[in-house]
Amino acid sequence: MGFDGKTLIHPSQLAPANEVFGPSQDELADARKIVSAYQQAQATGDSVITVDGRMIESLHVRNAERILALADLIAEMESAS
Description:
81 residues, mainly alpha, two-stranded antiparallel ribbon, 3 helices, 2 strands, 7% strand, elongated
């Protein structure tokens, strides 16, 4: 929806906000599948692939990588608190 963040006024809001606005387990699984398939395709010289019947290009891979990076940041922040 275009939002990259949320303003919180109390630390107790962090976990619920991450749960609601962070990537779901299904989104993470899909992102991992896309990145893995794309890396395999790149190794063979392909740049456009199909994953689960969907055409995947570099823009989809960048979005999948962004989702994985977001999940990593959330996990890092949660482990630090």
